[in-house]
Amino acid sequence: MSKQFKRTLITSALPYANGPVHIGHLAGVYVPADIYARYLRLKGEETLFVGGSDEHGIPITIRARKEGVTPQDIVDRYHELIKKSFEEFGISFDIYSRTTSDIHRKTASEMFLKIYENGGFQEIESEQYYDEEAGQFLADRYITGTCPHCSNQRAYGDQCEQCGTSLSPNELIDPKSALSGSVPVMRKTKHWYLPLNEHEAWLRQWILEDHKEWKSNVYGQCKSWLDLGLQPRAVSRDLDWGIPVPLKGAEGKVLYVWFDAPIGYISNTKELLPDDWEKWWKEKETKLVHFIGKDNIVFHCIVFPAMLKAEGSYILPENVPANEFLNLENDKISTSRNWAVWLHEYLEEFPGKQDVLRYVLTANAPETKDNDFTWKDFQARNNNELVAVLGNFINRALVLTQKYFDNRVPASDQLTDYDRATIAECQQVKQAVEYNLENYHFREAQKEAMNLARIGNKYLADSEPWKTAKTDMARTATILNLSLQIVANLAIVCEPFLPFSAKKIYSFLLAEKFDWEKLGSFDLLPAGHQLGTAELLFEKIEDEAIARQVEKLHATREANEQESYQAKPIKEKILFDDFSKLDIRVGTVLECEKVPKADKLLRFLLDDGIGKRTILSGIAAHYPNPGELVGKQVCFIANLEPRKLRGILSEGMILSAENADGSLSLIEPSKAVLPGSQIC
């Protein structure tokens, strides 16, 4: 038997305030959380939806250092940008606050002290990297070196972003401080740890036995961690940006961001409801649901519950419906590489199309596995589904009513068996949508909601009111009455998924908002009800708009490749005598053409200062118009043993340089020299 609750508290992962929000955040966390909150409110359930910016942690200090500003400057800028973007996109938070607020500082400090007083921490002394020039301990991200797995010379102490491997600072080859560039030393420091191992028994029972209904990806990741055995985790670190550890002798130490951030859910609730917050966090009749991405599963299912349990007075989450990751054009979304579709830019470049993105992200939600967002799919779903199915049905029903019944809802006459079957099919939508929403299957829920428009389209196409209007207006009135009732039902069912479109539908109908319980009713619009002006609900997105977005990503990819380019390692050293054996000269190109039936080869005829020589080079793909090379001067090795290729004797090797993108460029002297000139 399912548990009964009086209210639902919804939290969504706190985005780092070191950059804007992108579509990966939206698909994984904020759109499903908003759908769920809107659905519960429509049902009339007591609901609170809490969000906010995570404003502490190393990524923010790194960004500030790069820009030459303070961490507070960074979080002020991005908090406002994120908050505004969410508002414009329709994410319906009851509060969206921040972890640099006074109330959060107080709440986090009080929780630390309560756990400390309960004997819930361990004090552990360990050795960590210390920068003697900068005079501070180094967080993992402030240590750089060579990755032991892929030889990337710019790997961080926690991860190599080139190969994606998680690292510890001790694994780096030739570690250096990112602050001063000096070689760090190991130095002892003391920190407070949450002994997760002491919570393992009850966590194992609570998760693995009491919450088998959790999504398989969530349950599986938790089980994996528990089976490996939990270890104490530091709740403090040596840093000057964060909430100070509220103990004597803890100067220069702050609360670790993983400990500080989830307390933001509580402090933001306090900020909104200073006199009534405890019922949301301490009464068992409250259902607590965390919406997060898969990288936060362990923190919300194991670590944060352990913190709440150690404090002693808080409820635990009832569900944590984490999603997997959304990729972009077959590549992992990355803030540092600017490989993303940023929400604030989307809102500027596609004004009024919030619901299009909401729809596509929900239809392609990474609920059970990583999924991919492509601009072509975005265009196809808009044009083939939102325009051709949902918008088309609503427009046809309204335009036909305007044409035949002066824009007023006609009275229904006798129903046919097909009418009754259509009504029954529509009424099944409510149960299907509810089942999927209450089990956090948002992709399927939206699909079921869209079925209502598909049913309506089929009904209009089959019933053909434009034909019955010629002979039977009573039948036409019934068809359009039923169609308009479906439109009204669409206004209800679309509201959680497409809130801006639902509002437009209500304006078309000149109707007040209906409660969720009315979904499936076919008396929503009384006969004679005046309708508003019909407009297109969605518009087609043309190829040009998509091409601009694809080109924008292409430019980003090229910029990333140039920025991350590293030259290949130097080959083994050779003796000077070996090098001096090479005879490298300059030749003038007399002829250049593709070798027949050899896609890669070009045949060069050179004036080498002594005579003419033929050299074959595999650079045809990089010079599609080889005739343009005639008259240019190139560098070549003159004393290679000749060899036959495709039946042609090649007398040397033409030199070219390989760019980061794999393209080849011929090596040319900077000014003209005589053919045969030697390169020293």
Automatic annotation (TrEMBL):
Note on how the cofactor is bound: Binds 1 zinc ion per subunit.
What taxonomic classification does the UniProt entry list for its organism?
Bacteria, Pseudomonadati, Bacteroidota, Bacteroidia, Bacteroidales
What role is this protein assigned? Is required not only for elongation of protein synthesis but also for the initiation of all mRNA translation through initiator tRNA(fMet) aminoacylation.
Please give the catalytic activity noted in the UniProt record.
tRNA(Met) + L-methionine + ATP = L-methionyl-tRNA(Met) + AMP + diphosphate
Q: Which SUPFAM superfamilies does the record cross-reference, listed alphabetically?
A: Anticodon-binding domain of a subclass of class I aminoacyl-tRNA synthetases, Methionyl-tRNA synthetase (MetRS), Zn-domain, Nucleic acid-binding proteins, Nucleotidylyl transferase
- Residues bound to Zn(2+): 147, 150, 160, 163
What EC number(s) does its UniProt record assign? 6.1.1.10
**Listed GO CC annotations:** cytosol
Listed cofactors: Zn(2+)
Q: Where is this motif: 'HIGH' region?
A: 15-25
**Residues holding ATP:** 335
Localization: Cytoplasm
Query: What subunit structure does UniProt give?
Result: Homodimer.
User: Is this entry keyworded Cell wall biogenesis/degradation?
Assistant: no
Q: Does the keyword Metal-binding apply?
A: yes
Q: What is this protein called?
A: Methionine--tRNA ligase
* Residue numbers covered by motif 'KMSKS' region: 332-336
Enzyme class name: ligase
Q: Which family does it belong to?
A: Belongs to the class-I aminoacyl-tRNA synthetase family. MetG type 1 subfamily.
